[in-house]
Amino acid sequence: MPHSVDQKAEALPSAEVEMAEAATDESANQGAAEDVDMTDATETQTSEATKSEAKELGAFEKGQERNGMASDTGGIKVEDLFDMDSDDEEFPSSAMPVKKEASDSPDLLPSSPSDAGPVQHSGSDPELLRTFYQRLFPWRYFFQWLNHSPQPTLDFEHRELSFMLSNDAVMRYQSYRTADLLRKDVLRLMPTRIEIGPVYSTNPRERKLLQNAGSFRPVSKELCFDIDLTDYDDIRTCCDKANICIKCWQFMTMAIKVINAALRDDFGFKHIMWVYSGRRGIHAWISDKSARTLDDSKRKVIAGYLEVIVGGAQSGKRVNLRRPLHPHLTRSIDLLKSHFQDDVLEAQDPWRSPERADKLLQMLPDTELREALKRKWDASPERSSELKWKDIDAVAKTVTSKNFDPKALLDAKQDIVLEYTYPRLDINVSKKLNHLLKSPFVIHPGTGRVCVPVDLRTFEDFDPLSVPTIQQLIHEIDAWKEPEVKSEKGVHDWEKTSLKPYIEYFRTHVNALMRDEKDVKVKRERDGEDNGDLW
Amino acid sequence: MNRIDNKRRNVVDHRKKQYADPAYKETQYPHRLNFYATPPTADITLEQFEQWAIDRLRVLAEIEACSFRNKSPVEAAAHMRPLLEKYLPLDSNSSSSTQLSAQRQKDHYSHFILRLAFSSTKELRQRFARVETMLFRLRFNADDTRERQAFVESLNLDWEPVPDEEKRKFATELIATVISSYGKKAYQSIDEEQFYRVDWTRVPDLVEQRKVFLRAGKAYVPAKELQSLVVTEFTARLEKSLELTARALPRLDEDDRLTPILDHLSKNFVAPDAGYSGGNSAIDGAEITARNIDNLSQHFPMCMTVLHRTLRRDSKLKHFGRLQYTLFLKGIGLSLDESLTFWRQSFNKMTDDTFNKEYRYNFRHSYGDVGGDSNRRGGGYTPYSCQKILTEHAPGPGEAHGCPYRHMNMENLAVQLQASGVTDPAVLRGVGEDKEKQKFHLACNRVFEHLHAKELKQAKDERIMTASQLETIVHPNEYFKRSYLLKNMGKAQPGGGGDVKMEG
Ligand SMILES: [Zn+2]
């Protein structure tokens, strides 16, 4: 697991700040939130209600196990019900009911260089949010993306969506037949966050009507990956915690490159979409049918295949690989080499201080080499990481010991390159079919930025700090001027804004997915073996 | 066993009528190995039916014993070679044998006969599938490389052999996976390495450990891993077929010639390593008497210790407990007279009258002193083996028989072990892990080695006991004998009787 306990603890202060932020927003909007609660008391589940329901299902499951049925054939594990996306610890979730503390120290608020000012707080301003859902959110493509067809199917109707409301209440197991019904309900409830769960064997809303808990089980979901910059805190020097800049964003660029190559070339997946999580991480959604139908054990296999960095930040050398390297790792090093030079050695300069240089020494073999390097670096304390890296080979040539093993040094250097560049996955997000993950195109309440897809053709130029914020977008609609030559079709509001390229990219992605899905269906019908889907 | 007129012809496959096809020719056996996909159709004599089944059973029982004794694959193969030669030979196509067809027919038929005998309960099916898998693996490894490949190709498992051209194209990648997974020594040259292309989901373990090259959703599996692929497939198919056989069994009842044979076969299989001959003193010079049992109980395995403690505490034992314990005592050399004395004294809360009326007969019966001809001739029942204790008659509430390593929860087991002087936390933890993994023999032997550590070292150092005398214990009476001899080194010598031997 990339998260060590220590890291979690470290991340906490920022989480608190964010919560305080949410609380501030809320007090402004309390009226609206109460409204929702009153009018919809039956449907709205507070986190407490969700919890007791979880227990109920857990009890079902126990009974099932007693009957000798394997638990993976059905039933929901209690822990799974609480399994929320851990990407954004700053969000309170049903899993962790969090105390809301008012904060009066705005200077603690995380800020990024281009993003100062009051703008960033209003990610969940209800009026802005309403306008966003009403005029900008790409409902149709969102529906098609999850439905795999223009006509409503059970892929969408049985899909769990989960809403977090502005009062932090979480409504799980929401489901809709069409994009329009979903849109209407979102406008009514105004969730600050939408999460996507699996497609279930029956309609999630009807799960409680079932006699047999086993007949309500997750059957498919996109394969997902989650990478978060906080997992790089021990190797990035520019920022820490929830803060990011374009320098450390390069770690995400490397991650996309490496993981994408493995998913595409090794596993043969085609419909991969990367989504900026709105602040400091990215998610991958793989929509190929063969990926959606993987069971938990197969998801775990993929996660294991991709996982290279093991142990927490305090666990010493975290990369230990058999030699010769597996082709996936050889390819990864090829992809990462230049990034190591430019984005790590130069941009991060991770071993400049003597303490950090010690960390590098610990990862090298041979006592004589280590001692020689230490003497050299002690003599010039501010020597850059780039030079220190070069020193290793130069000093190695002077090592006289008969036991010195050049191959071991080469291997160690490769391991170091990987440790400082290879993607650090939160593999728990990938391992479970019924893990909830934040939807694309929602607004990150902390930054106000839209969780936009990252165009794979230009992902190396992606700058998270120039991703449009909700305020900016609404302003763009207002500022839009009708061109002199009117187009025959009307202009969508999103086309008037800087959201346009992202939605167009999403549309292209969804169309390719639907085309493939259709081909599969046609082929199956031709082969006369269309037994319907799982239902 | 009752012999049945062997002139009468017998049909092995009960489904033959359904599939009867005049064009059907006698089964051909192009390969030495067999996945046993099609049931035999030709007639064989009843004598063949019975003899072939017994021969295969001998082989399977011995293979199972190898696994209980934790023999390595190489040791097991060496141990099994002469037995296979004798009972179930299978020569390769390249050999000059003229018996190929006959050998393969016997192999084919005997497998299917035992399927019938061992499909009735889930436990038997699992055990049969397990030992048949072991046999298959043994033969698969011993097969000629080229013939093995031809066999695998004949299975149509949609594992595509990677063509040479593609192999050369990905030579770097393929070589890297082979060397990093199996070491430099295992690698010859890319031309000699054979790879199969399979859907990655078929080999999840190899993918997760990055032991195979992946491309476009296909895993390139080295032929070295083929064994595990083929064997996994063999087991999966056999388990499925056994389920089907179980459902078809009732129809077989109509053939009253087969039922007694099949019954007998399955009974034999229940205790393949049984046959601890009792009656005569197992160890010269040992005082095996009623009044010495308390003293001797320090040499008992836990299954008997628990019975002994329960008997002392409650002054009685329930039916299966009495049976398990009295046969064990018989096995260590307690005479019938002494046995009756022992039980009479132990059941000290009942009258002579009750004891004589309700119990005396049963104890005599187990010694072969009363009962039918066969019981008398056979000297009564044989002491139970671990296998029998582990698998038959799991104890219910208030019953103390069975194998404590299997049937007790860890808490109670620890109490019993501690009462026997096993207090080392590492040993207790080890027992717990064995138990978790269902390696009950290992747990028992672990305790034995712990309690006899000093003596075992001495016996090994001074070469008092041979390697075979120090093999894994798979019989409670062997536990006793070995413990007694070790603790009395130099005082007693092994007697003639009491050796564990196989019963066909
Ligand atoms: Zn930064």
UniProtKB/TrEMBL annotation, chain A:
* Comp. bias regions, Basic and acidic residues: 50-65
- What keywords is this UniProt entry annotated with? DNA replication, DNA-directed RNA polymerase, Metal-binding, Nucleotidyltransferase, Primosome, Transcription, Transferase
Q: Where is the composition biased (Acidic residues)?
A: 81-91
Query: Disordered: where is this region?
Result: 1-124
The first-level EC class reads: transferase
Q: Name one GO cellular component term.
A: alpha DNA polymerase:primase complex
Q: Which domain of life is it from?
A: Eukaryota
Which InterPro entries does the record associate with it? Answer: DNA_primase_S (IPR002755), DNA_primase_ssu_euk/arc (IPR014052)
Q: Enumerate the SUPFAM superfamilies for this protein.
A: Prim-pol domain (SSF56747)
Single GO term (MF): metal ion binding
The entry's family comment says: Belongs to the eukaryotic-type primase small subunit family.
User: What name has this protein been given in UniProt?
Assistant: DNA primase
Species of the source? Immersiella caudata
From TrEMBL, chain B:
| Stretches assigned to the DNA primase large subunit C-terminal domain | 297-480
- Record-linked InterPro entries: DNA_primase_C, DNA_primase_lsu_euk, DNA_primase_lsu_euk/arc
Q: Please list the residues that bind [4Fe-4S] cluster.
A: C303, C386, C403, C444
Judging by the UniProt lineage, the source's domain of life is Eukaryota
GO biological processes = DNA replication initiation; DNA replication, synthesis of primer
Which Pfam families does the protein's record reference? Answer: DNA_primase_lrg, DNA_primase_lrg_N
Q: Please give the cofactor(s) recorded in the UniProt entry for this protein.
A: [4Fe-4S] cluster
Give the protein family: Belongs to the eukaryotic-type primase large subunit family.
- What is the role of this chain? DNA primase is the polymerase that synthesizes small RNA primers for the Okazaki fragments made during discontinuous DNA replication.
Protein name per UniProt: DNA primase large subunit
State the species of origin: Immersiella caudata
Q: What is the lineage of its organism?
A: Eukaryota, Fungi, Dikarya, Ascomycota, Pezizomycotina
